[in-house]
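Handout, section 4.2: multi-component inputs.
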Amino acid sequence: MKKISKNYIVKAFSALFLVAVAACSDKEVLDLQPATSLSDKSAFATPSTIELTVVGVYDAAQSGFYAGGQIRGYPFGAAHVQQGDNRGEDVISTQGFYGITYDGAYDPTTQNNDFMWQTLYGLINKANVVLDGLDKATLGGPLTQTVVDQYKGEMYFLRALAHHELLKHFARPFSDNPTVARGGVVNRITAVADGASADLAGQLGRNTVREGYDLILTDLNLAETNLPVTRSNASLRISRATKAAAVALKTRVYLHMNDWANVIIEGNKLAAGSSVPFAPNPAFGSYSLTASPLGPFTAAGSKNNPESIFSIENNDVDNAGVNGALPTMYNVSKAPVNGRGLVCISPILWNRPWFLDGDLRKGVAMVDDDGPGPGRVAKFTRKYSDAVARTDNAPVIRYAEVLLNMAEAIQRQAGAPDARALELLNAVRNRSVTTVPDRFTIASFATSNDLITAVLQERRIEFVCEGLRWSDIHRLAQDATFGTGGIPLKANRTVTNWSTFYRTPTNPAPAVFSTQAAIPYSDRRFLWPIPASETNVNPVLASQQNPGY
Amino acid sequence: MSFLSLLLITSMAWAQERVITGKVTSTEDGSGLPGVNVVVKGTTNGSVSDADGKYSLSVPTTGGSLVFSFIGMTTQEIQIGDRTTVDISLGLDVTQLSEVVVVGYGTQEKKKMTSSQTSITGSAVSSLAAPSFDTQLAGRSAGVQVTVGTGIIGQAPTINIRGVNSLTSGTFPLIVVDGVPMVTGNQSSVTPTNPLADINPNDIESYDILKDGAATAIYGSRAANGVILITTKRGTKGQGKVKVDLSVTTGFSDAVKRFDVLNSDQFILIANEKLTNSGAAIGAFANPDGVSTDWQDEILRTGSFSNYNLGISGSSKATNYFFSVGYQKQQGAVVANDFDRLSFRTNVDHKFNKYVEGGVGLSVNRNNTTGLNTGANALSGNISAGLRLFPNLSPFDATNATGFNLSPDGSVLGLGPNTRNIDNNYTNASFVLANNKFIASTDRVLGNVYAKINIVDGLSFRTQYGLDYTGNLDFSSSDPRHGDGRGSAGVVSQTYRRVTRWNTQNTLNFNKEFGKHDFDVVVGAEFQKTTVSSFFGQGANFSDRFFQQDNLISGQFVTPTSGGFYSLNGFASYFGRMNYSFNNKYLLGVSLRNDALSNLPTATRNGTFFGASAGYRLSQEEFFKNLNIGSVLNDVKLRGSFAEVGNVDIGNFPYLSLYGAGRYGSQNGAAFTQAGNPLLQWETSKKLNIGADFGFLNNKIQLVVDYFSNDVDGLILDAPTVPSVGIPGNSISQNVGALSNSGLEVTINATPVDKNGFRWDVSANFTAINNQVKTLAKNTLGETLPLVGNYAITREGDSQNSIYGFVFAGVNPANGHPLYEKGNGEIVQRNGNTGVYSYYDAANGIDETVTVRNSINASLSTRDVSVGGDRRILGQTLPKWFGGFINTFSYKGLSLEVFLRFQGGNKVYNQTKQDNLLNQDFTNGGTVLLDRWRPDNVNTDVPKLWLNRNAQVNQSGQAISRFVEDGDFLRIQNIILSYSIPKSILNKTGAFALSNIRVFAQVQNAFTFTNYTGIDPELGVGFDNNTNPIFRTITFGVNIGL
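Output:
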């Protein structure tokens, strides 16, 4: 008996020991919360975390993911510029990097198109999720209704920007038939944060182009109402949306809709006057042109200047990386710049008689010659300067574009060459064309169309290497007078040494270079396909693929 | 102790007539064996040998016989006759040794086992030249597939026990070292590291691979992928004499195979044809110095291997101990890939008294793994370089400041005699390999301490605390002059990552026989917590290369970056198991475990898993023993088991909606990074096993047959969401998947010949396995969403991750364009230049435009053939069968082991050939290009060359049947020849007394028979894309026992 009772005591101790260990450990090992992320419950809990989630949507605009989790500046940290340029004829993709885009060799599995699609929709949903969170946030402390509205305005602005980029690449232009069923892209306006909402949203098909533009304008109008006039921090004034950003984007969007009157109405908010400086409007941030055409650019200039209305911020630790950043890809490869020389200015643009030799935008401050060594001897832009730390902001819209948007709209409505249209054109052009005899006067234009042509030419020169070329090709493709009729003929990018093909004062008769065929508007390649990553899992869009893919 | 004293006392009481003395020695090394029981047969009269193996015993005058027995040794019976001295030597009893096997939270007698489990002794693999044991388990057990993805040292293999048992969650088995689950998975961000290499293979006593549900169920939620139990060496009780084992191995290695690349002349021919076909001027010219470089000479080399190991073990009355120190150094056959390890281990067990015993086990390691850029698509990736760099120039250029052949601006490879730069900015591999560094230094401590209290006879309590600590310091440095660091003017990055896991286990064990009823019961609780914390510092734009050599140096760079990471998870578990046997004939096992996991929401984080098994030892039946067959078939056991287990390798907090870091330039942000699922639950794996064990001719031939099926249900899948709804990562974790692995395993161990000192042992295993995906996520229309990539598909009804793409239909002889077969059987051609598709008309082959059908419909659609598209499954990547075949021939001290391994029934996608050997860029390529279409070579499978038109000519970026190859192979894995110097020659006494010397020579990866045209069919695990070759290693070594 004695023995047994002793055993029972030992057993009882053991059992107690087991239980004791269990009791103290359960909580310690089980009730854990993530330390590296906020949860959906904490993300909208305080004014400070709400601010973080808003910035997180800009991050989605700056650096969405690329294949294998790489960062290549999709959609607006760099890629919108690179894809927009390489779809046009004014640059050359000197290597294979943007070759698929440049050659029109894309198919539904092409990563460039795929990740542009994915990151744009990723941006849109993040904006929608934050809009949803803002609706549920409790006001208090620094989080006033004004602040909440301002945040919402930023979300509307980014959502509009993304929808418009999608429409430019995946849908026919507004000037085609904007009401053709399923001709646009899918408009996304509700937050998708879980399986149920994803299933619901996944059933939606493509909207019409008009519905897409209507949504964009609704968003931009809300953005204009809610956004602040400016920001106290000079760098945030450019990198975060303002009233002027919404208005400027509207001038671009209305231009795509050929809605000249509204371009002018919106443009007048930023530039009301009839002559330089067009009465900068303090209610809209008082934007103005910089003195030099390089003013809105370079690593330092792009952060703080009066002309950039909205740019995506990059800095040394957060940028599109060595395989994506604008300064890396667009700069010469020669030391000490050490860029990669992947996108140069094409002789197609350079050699045009209307791109004058004395234009500052051809000068050494703006253009660099790469070399020596074959394969990359060409003219490269200097708009982006910091190929090492890659800190240059990525331009989205600047005041010069608003002026030229207005110039075109005004002239489109005028029967004869219009003085204000000319003044707007000259404001941009004359800061680079400094030789007085080379400058335009009203007498330079016989017809209204001549002046419109001059505006369109000026856009190509002024905005080269800013990704806007595709924007114009797209919207003008169907234009009877000014249209390109599709993707224009391009320089043959396999040519290795371009030095003899540029017209310069010392090379007045450049050699004829080989070219790549134009792609007509009717060709499937005018549009990007809905990527296979989408159609593989989305039967709705699989049945609404762009024709030919 | 009391039993032994009792024996001594009784023997004295029986002392009569005469005394026998003698010495018991070990046949292995001739040393005296202490602790051997010596009993007069049929009596309780006995004695125990002393520390020198000597014994003395009184026996009746009538003599009789003595029985010498010792655990682990063959029991021997000797007639005494009229002798007064009986010396005897005892040999190891292999069958008896394997009688007790390690199982989860305990041990079990093999004959009573009802589950499926394979045991492998450590010595079978420890002498092989490898940094870690895991790769050496390949082919040694039925049902266990071990595949090495690349030849890079540090690369952990994939281990699949009875198939790939998940789609997107972890598939690696649970590895348990001396009862403590160890951390697995790569810990470095600069070069692959294998945490299993932190265990010195020489320290391992045995591997026990738990395969079926019954064996693994005790591990509950972690059991779905099987479990490997590793037991390290300990001192043997009663061993007495200190045993010292010294082993030295050294050797060298080479890549098993190289690619056939174009030489200088061939390159010039092919490259210029690419250019001229595309309307460009020729750009490749002969080198005036006649240089023809094979860049594979720059990226590959003859590697070296050396391993030194010293083990010391022994025991005293109450204490056993084992100490070891090992050093291994390996220089890979891939340039810049090195490994070295210094390891220490101490295992000590002590019996304090009758009730209390305890012990510690501690291993401390330092590993250094040096890696390189092996990125398949990286511009400085080593294999890309070997295949693509210009052969008509030297890697070196004395006139360049760096000494390497670079372009004047340093951005790419030099031009050499060519007039255009290399496409895609490929860099000079020699420079990159010589100047860029990737080093991971890992400190690993694996420790455990236990105490065991023997409460009453048969009942004991055991408590154990285990710690697994990893500290890993990564260092990478990229040279500012050329390669990946040039764009940032030099980059140095360092990451420190610390992983700590503690694990406590408390178990009560009850083991007792009541007549014919035998019970073995264990109940326990286990708690574990794992914490990962890491931080990194990086500098870019350096002042001087001098400061980039060994560490990040403050103040010497312009752009600093830093960051960090922290994660944690834990679980709490309660479990129990009972094994019951009746009359040694009817066997039953039941286990139950409840796990609670921090990675799941409170509502669903508890799961209960059970397993049951039964066995029937037919051969124990009297009627069976009396059958004729009973004399041949001496052992028959029928087994069956079923269990439901889980997989928790699902990442941290997959159920939460998260907002992670979302930095925007200079502004801090938090971005929506994960869409949660609050309903997330356990995934379960139902494992069924039916098997039988047979022993023939007194176990000379052993046969084990098992049928198994794993039905994995409620798989936690990253269920795809439509990209255009913008869910981060386009997926949400959901319990939506189901798959099954079923198959047959056969293992045969036999000794066909054992005569006149010559012995031939055979061990063969074979596994046939069928993997089928049963269920995947569905969209709102109820349509299943296959997991589709550019090269592979996982869809219901097929094996997972199958090659998926277009059917290649040859080359149009008329124009050299590739032909494809559409889903509807029509043949289309793709213009190699423009990429435009058109219908192919054999009668009018050159026409690309004329027929009315040449609408957009000609182009290939990435949709499936079943829905009118053109893609279909081109082959299964998972092997359908595999196995191993070990032959060991021994004659006296001489032994030859030939180990064959085979695998097949699967296809391999040769993406290396598609994207690199056949590339259309102004770069080098493979000799396969020589057969390209030309007007004078129209009957070929290699289309016409077009500069930069890789997608158009080779459909790169997508799979086509042209690059699908058979993956079957037979490999002579190892050949080992060894010789043990006869003991009679060895010096047995004095300062240099030796107990054994064994010298050996071995070849690993000796030869592979396969039709696969790439480097090796096993590389890349179904998708071979610029993978580094495996090595053929030849080593020589010696084992010395003191």
